[in-house]
């Protein structure tokens, strides 16, 4: 298994191109199941999760083609993916594929919309809490779907086709919003989703669906209204920039000090994160090309942060912020309200000398004068990159094991950080 070795203490200077958002690319790829025409997606990040979803979609009968583009100047421009689900050849999403990535469960709504039936394994993905799918199922039931659970599979049927309905989610779920929104695009009549996820990736998927001929209003707010249509057509769509990757590199620069331009990043995708980083003492400015992040010499102020659905502080940046706060001058308080088991990075950060006490959903991080490199283990996608940030700040060498978690969500991480002066290398074993 590959490992990443970092020698800490280097300031970061330069430009990092921000990739397309994984969390938009995945549902956009799944939306290809809704039409027999070709969906062309530009700026798709080259990630293990994308490759796995290609396998899953192929299993349903989707033809996929990739044009890899290497542009001049700033290098990689993201892949262009062509997805054509001319015929759905299989409505089963097997355990062996779905268990590796939770988002693959989202094929359920589109398969139902297109074929009236689907058999999808209950999901796996990062081991961060129980992560049930009850909201997906009750949402689809409101559209007239009969659901049985059989041998670890959700067996769903819409005997008379999908019909619009009122879906009022008791809790905000990004995945359940995607699943119901995609299904409702082809249902008969109107669907209203209340307490919908407002994440920018939901709005990005709705914008692509509308290019395909769907009639969706309000995506990006908590009420989404969908007038079902008979069929959807092909479209071309560019995936929006990854706000989690943006926040991660912003925190890496905050951690090491330096001055880095995050090319293609958009401030409106991470308002709460920008506020928190400014409070911590990081300089952030926006231009029409991206975001400039700088910290020169000054210490970091501690912060108090609670994770929340968008536009709140994203759970997907909680681990990275915690790593950063390990070196702040004082006590930071970080509350994780989205996933109950998302503090697995704490014990790894402690191996570098961090002082963190966890009680329930609250972590108290007391800044220390220095961290020392150590061997650590990645436990999930976002936790693993928090260890990279800690390693960049630490004295000496840090080796991060199990980096396959990183490859699920961060494209060319070593190259992007290395080009700004980080001493980081992948060790193949
Ligand atoms: C998506 C993101 C993930 C992010 C998360 C929260 C993708 C591919 N993944 O995951 O990176 O961390 O949003 O912003 O976009 N829940 C239920 N029942 C359900 C569904 C969810 O109780 O049926 C709970 C979950 O356990 C969790 C909370 O709702 O506590 C939010 O989960 P959800 O928004 O669904 O996360 P994902 O869509 O899986």
Task: Give a short summary of the structure.
This protein has 429 residues and is α/β, with parallel strands linked by helices.
The main sheet comes to: 4 strands, mixed
* Secondary-structure class: alpha/beta
Principal-axes geometry comes out as elongated
Small ligands present? uridine-diphosphate-N-acetylglucosamine
Rg over CA atoms, rounded to whole Å, is: 21 Å
Strand content: 25-35%
Helix content: 25-40%
Describe the structure.
Helix content is 31%, strand content 28%. It has 14 helices and 24 strands. The longest helix has 14 residues, at 243-256. α8 (243-256) runs parallel beside α12. It has 429 residues and is α/β, with parallel strands linked by helices. The N and C termini lie close together (6 Å). Residues 70-76 and 125-129 have low confidence and may be disordered. The strands form six sheets. The chain has a four-stranded mixed sheet. A hairpin with a 5-residue loop joins β12 (215-217) and β13. Residues 23, 26, 102-103, 129, 131-136, 171, 173-176, 315-316, 338-339 line the site of uridine-diphosphate-N-acetylglucosamine (UD1).
